């Protein structure tokens, strides 16, 4: 913590405007209030947390990743709590209709007219047909490795792992580990029984106090399962 404080306040006093911090993952609210005095601009290489960050309202608490990935988190994209997003991840890249004469958007997207006065189809535009749901839903505690691509219309389940460089074109089940292009299931992180207990716990929705009291359980899966079984028995 001492080294972290030293780094933060050396950054604050630095003349290098590229190194300004928005927030730091895992800090308590008291210390985060101190960070509010630092300009809310970050270097793209500094990981950021979306916790309590109004700029990323579709991103859950304690989810963290690089700025270039989180900037795609706009309308139609929701990301749950405690997700970890690696560098150079692309979420929801633009798609093109391969069944038209041209795959270019000039005949489908009137927005080009805002930038080019001589835009070919400024007044007549046939909007691109959407024959599938394009929303992207990423669950809780999802780890997305660097350079992965998440295509439109995909739902990623809780606890899933997306391997580095994977291109996800289909839904990913809870706790599945997927790799490759296109991404395929390599294995599952837990047994069916263990998955059910973790899903039943909904630990990602626990308040900070409960997380603090039971943080040791996350290093001991067997004790975690016993805790959830006991907790449900008392309901």
Describe the protein in words:
This protein has 235 residues and is of the alpha/beta class. Among the domains are: 96-133, no CATH class; 190-235, no CATH class. The chain has helices at residues 2-12, 29-35, 67-70, 192-201, 208-213, 221-233; strands at 48-49, 64-65, 77-79, 84-85, 90-91, 136-138, 143-144, 149-150, 155-156, 161-162, 167-168, 176-179, 184-188. A hairpin with a 4-residue loop joins β12 and β13 (184-188). The protein is elongated and about 70 Å long.
Low-pLDDT residue spans: 3-55
Percent range of helical residues: 10-25%
Kindly provide the radius of gyration, computed on alpha-carbon positions and rounded to a whole number of angstroms. Answer: 21 Å
Mean pLDDT: 74
The N- and C-terminal alpha carbons lie at a distance of 39 Å
The secondary-structure class comes to alpha/beta
Largest sheet, in brief, is: 7 strands, mixed
- Strand and helix order: HHEEHEEEEEEEEEEEHHH
Q: Report strand %.
A: 5-15%
Q: Give the tally of β-strands.
A: 13
Quick recap:
The chain has helices spanning 2-12, 29-35, 67-70, 192-201, 208-213, 221-233; strands spanning 48-49, 64-65, 77-79, 84-85, 90-91, 136-138, 143-144, 149-150, 155-156, 161-162, 167-168, 176-179, 184-188. The protein has 235 residues and is of the alpha/beta class. The two termini are 39 Å apart.
Key structural traits:
235 residues; single chain; three-stranded parallel β-sheet; seven-stranded mixed β-sheet; 6 helices; alpha/beta; elongated
